[in-house]
Design brief:
Elements lengths: L2 H17 L3 H13 L3 H13 L3 H14 L4 H14 L2 H11 L7 H14 L3 H14 L7 H17 L3 H9 L11 H17 L3 H14 L4 H10 L5 E14 L58 E11 L2 H10 L3 H4 L3 E14 L1 E5 L3 E4 L3 H5 L5 E4 L2 E4 H10 L7
Antiparallel strand pairs: 1-2, 1-3, 2-4, 2-5, 6-7
């Protein structure tokens, strides 16, 4: 294997471990890439450390990165994001400025992160001015699909906050979405969540629910998705409640895909609605995104045998007044076909406080073979392998539930 191919494989494995919530393995690969003189090694280490709660270690890693490779603008941007997460807003802004003028820099990306930093610093007039200037440059200067979607999300949200929901809806519906949306699943989910809020403000509740369901089908990671779901369902009144950790399981519907890119028996792939609208997936809007209510983010994508049947395990954080209500609220976010077969596997009270009821986090669909169902139920522990990481399905669901979003900033 050539060194170039070796590096490419390492980078792919590093990001796969991040997606798999296996941060220790990601850090190991990041360290190897650093020794190989690859800037992406610092990035992988920094993201992994931040996502497992070691923010200062992540900052230390990126500070070492910009000293080692001072002309790599992405390292400066990530360092600025981490400073911002620490509340060091001026240091964050200085890091973004240090990246400006470096080779191949995306000025639009720096400006967008500057907007977020100014917002968190409470400097809203400055944030709005920077964003308005960025929006006026037009999407041809925004370069990356994920960035384009995040800018669109903020514009739609900005219009909602200004009590201009009609304009927000038109902004979304008039957008020409790029073809590579599958590479920006979280960003697409967040845009759809903002769109759902706008529809809800216009009292178009069925359309708002549909947009929320489609957002959940794209990605369960962004907090904005469940914020929109709660808002659309009127779950906004705060009272003293318990946050429950709920685990549901049940048979995976026959014909549904069992991994990214997998096809169901009817030939539908992950980026087409499987049930032709029966479960609320957005579709039939020419040029508008829709996604299958399938195993996006599934833990299992490499099991041999087309006839193998699977069970699914899903974990949720749900604020509710009782265990029964927590289970009902968790089931409600799932497609109808799946909702009807899910059963409560485990319910644990997590904390009590003043909060709005509803779902706050949900893990991806974690699949395991039906042939191992009895062993898993008896506690012998079915284990599924994903990439180079092997973990029990319960461990993976909880790790996915507790981990911060992949969106570091």
């Amino acid at each position: 294997m050539s060194n170039e191919a070796y590096i490419e494989d390492l980078v792919e494995d590093g990001y796969a471990h991040l997606d798999d919530y296996d941060f220790e393995s990601a850090i190991d690969i990041g360290e190897t890439l650093e020794r190989e003189g690859q800037a992406v090694g610092f990035e992988i280490q920094g993201i992994a450390l931040a996502r497992q709660g070691e923010l200062q270690s992540a900052v230390n890693t990126l500070e070492r990165g910009v000293k080692t490779m001072p002309t790599v603008w992405e390292l400066w941007q990530l360092l600025g994001n981490l400073y911002c997460d620490q509340g060091h807003h001026d240091k964050a802004l200085n890091a973004f400025e240090a990246a400006r003028g470096l080779p191949d820099v995306s000025v639009a990306s720096l400006e967008f992160n500057k907007v977020i930093t100014l917002e968190r610093a409470g400097r809203m007039p400055e944030a709005d001015a920077v964003f308005d200037a960025l929006w006026a440059t037009g999407e041809t200067s925004w370069r990356y699909t994920g960035l384009r979607l995040r800018i669109l999300e903020r514009r739609v949200s900005q219009l909602c906050e200004a009590d201009r929901p009609g304009e927000a809806v038109r902004t979304f519906e008039q957008t020409a979405f790029p073809d590579d949306l599958e590479a920006a699943d979280m960003e697409m989910a967040s845009v759809l969540a903002a769109y759902a809020i706008a529809l809800n403000q216009l009292e178009r509740r069925p359309d708002a629910v549909e947009a929320c369901r489609t957002a959940i089908a794209w990605s369960r990671e962004p907090d904005e998705v469940f914020h929109a779901w709660r808002a659309v369902h009127g779950q906004t009144e705060e009272a003293r409640r318990t946050m429950y950790e709920v685990q549901l399981e049940g048979p995976w519907p026959e014909g549904w895909p069992t991994g990214d890119g997998a096809e169901g028996d009817d030939g539908d792939d992950m980026f087409l609605p499987l049930e032709r609208g029966q479960d609320g997936a957005m579709q039939g809007r020419d040029g508008k995104p829709h996604r299958a209510q399938g195993a996006q983010g599934s833990a299992l994508s490499s099991v041999d045998g087309d006839d193998e049947r699977f069970y699914v395990l899903i974990a949720y954080l749900v604020a509710a007044d009782s265990e029964d209500e927590a289970v009902a609220l968790a089931k409600a976010i799932e497609p109808a076909t799946l909702r009807g077969v899910l059963m409560a596997e485990e319910i644990n009270p997590d904390e009590t406080g003043v909060m709005a009821k509803g779902v706050y986090r949900a893990s991806p669909h974690m699949l395991f073979p039906a042939s191992e169902y009895g062993a898993r139920r008896s506690g012998e522990g079915s284990r599924v392998s994903t990439g180079n990481n092997t973990a029990s399905d319960a461990e993976r669901t909880l790790r996915a539930l507790r981990s911060p979003s992949r969106r570091v900033h």
